[in-house]
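User: Structure please.
Assistant: Input sequence and predicted structure:
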Amino acid sequence: MNGLIQDIRYSLRQLRKNRGFATIAVLTLALGIGANTAVFSVVNGVLLNPLPFPNASRIVSMFQEKPDFPFGSISYPNFLDWQRENRSFEAIAAYRWADGGLTGNGPGESVHAQHVSATFFPILGVTPILGRNFTADEDRRGANPTALISEGLWKRKFASDPNIVGKRIVVAGEGRTIVGVIPSSFHLEIQNFRTSEIYEPIGEEIDPLFHDRASFWGTDAIALLKPGVSIEQAREDMKRVNAELAAAYPDVNANIKSNIMTLKDQVTGDSRPVLLLLLGAVGFVLLISCVNVANLLLARSTARQREFSIRVALGARQARVIRQLLTESILLAIIGGALGVGIAKWGVTLAVTAAPNGTFMPTIPRAEEIGVDFRVLLFAIFASLLTGILFGLIPALKTSGIGVAQNLKDAARSISGHRSRLQGALVIGEMAMALVLLVGAGLMLRTLMQLWSVKPGFDPHNVISLNITPPPLLAKQSPDAIRAYFRDMVSTIRSVPGVESASLSWGARPMEGDNEKPFTVEGPQPPARQADAPLTLEYWVQPEYLNTMHLQLLRGRFLSENDNEHSERVVVIDSGLAAQYFPGQDPIGKHVSIFDFGSDPNQRIWAPFTVVGVVGHVKQFGLSRDVSERLQAQIYRAVMQGGDVTMKSAAQGADAFVKFQSPLSADAAFENIRKKLSANNDQLILSGNESEEEVVARSIASQRFSLTLLGGFAGLALLLAGIGIYGVLSYLVGQRTQEIGVRMALGARRFDVLRMVLKDGARMTLVGAGIGVLAALAMTQFMASMLFGVTPTDPLTFALVAVLLCCIALISCYVPARRAMRVDPMVALRYE
């Protein structure tokens, strides 16, 4: 310990004595360790940490798998059968998203709401901070309406009233009794669920359509596995349950399966490959940092060679010398690591804030759980120690390996020869790693360029979507009165200054929400079982939707004002459905049948429609994902041709798409519309105000996020590699000053000296680039799933990156080469 303390004191004196070297080394290591710690903290928060729920490892997500749609919603009757008949789960809970208007206690407002089973919060281990969870008796038809509210709403709307339990609120026109307050620590973002302000029992839904086995209503489920039951066993068990349901209800359940995954896999989504790729990329940055510092130590050790030779001559063992050098390098790494943790905290905050979040699925899942915790600090300490050993060991061994007599004779040229070869090898490694990172960033840039050139199927420019919650009493009026109300409302929106066009919409929303329906095309009789019919995405729109969204009309006509409740029922299909189901035919005038509701809510029929037009395909699942999805068929139906059941449902809430004119902003357009609608009816609640340009941008948010970080890492690697080759050549020029002087004294031209130095730099660059290309060919295969319109071995990207790297390297070589040209032969000959 005494020796170690002496080594630390001596190392600190050396660093104070050589402040320039210490500053450069510490900053280089801080960047490398900080970047690694930042990325690891994201990986730790998203992938490594368990979900913040008791028994998180036993919680699974469940979907109803249908033909062409693996993550479909579950019909509520099927959910109840799953709940009763399974043998693998302690409990199953259903949930669905259903925002609504909150009235009373001040101005009305639209609030995020979820309908959940009574077992939902107990499965997640969430206990209300006031009151209780729902009971089974409240989670059924005919029960007294109840609600749980969030802690945030309790504080904001009710001033943290301690007696809130038992009080009444009005949601979507219905009075509800508050039974509990959900803590603000609860957070969950998955398909069809987002942390909300109001939670209602899902089973109390009185709409008969919800309880129809052929109706899905965006319902998904979570479940808690019994102790000792694996997810594979649960999947086998659910195969049995679904087989029994298929036998009992063949018309609807013949092709229904259960898709089960861990809740954590659903929460993290597709982020795992992206984060692991970034972790590998930032590891290269750390290695390059280590190489740079190792080169600095090798260069610095030349001046200290005689010092350590004298130490050995006076009796110090070589192990003692190595320990001294390692102590200095580890001390540098620890200081750099401490600074790197500060950089990491700043970098994590920046990355999480900069990443765009979707309406339902954020770009970085579990962002609220990302931070510099104990595990991240351990990683930083480990990275610092490993880095110190890694960059300090090679210089220490090289320094201690030179013979004492040789050093005391000052055989500097021999020593420098050994070191220059080692430094050259390290620079070659730097160049190779930098090229791999540059290729990765280049491929992501090419992917992003390809994606931006993809047409989404509509023009999002100056288009916003609005969520409209009509007055609660509207749902109790007749279907004709509801239609009249919507006609007046849309007419009012279109009259707002700056509004170019507007259309009501429900069902599927471009790039945001699906609404799949069974359908058939004309020809043979409809399938005997609804379960055997293919699926289509169903959009309910008005005639102005064509101009609002700038859909491409390919054939026939779009919906018109004459397509109303009194006319023949018509549809417009997309090019995907036309190509798949009417190949080589003109679909205009043909017929399709959609599995729809009759006049009786309990009646389902195959409703016939005439095809009157064909529009371009909308990239419903995102610019990059849509092409890989099996469900490509799309149908547009006229809002006013909706049956009585549909109109009653729409009266509870609808969407509108509005195109506004420049220079009006999206916020200004929304505010103008809100004021105009509120002036006519103060009970109508308008919310949303989502720009469709943002919707399209979010569909490639993952690629943009990856490009931003990969590009940053590649730029840092390129800078460090350029500094590395500059430092090595500067060191070599300094070591060869006498040789250069002799050459020039014997007649060598300045251009010959320039060429000699540049040739050394070019040799290292080309060898490094060659090794880097081979490594990149192997490494980029792991990026294949993230690329779009470009292959992992894209020759253009590889060629451009190699040229860029060589240009930067040659620029880095030029400064020491010019210094070599200016060597005075007479000064050089007196150098020693």
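The CA atoms of residues 741 and 823 lie 7 Å apart.
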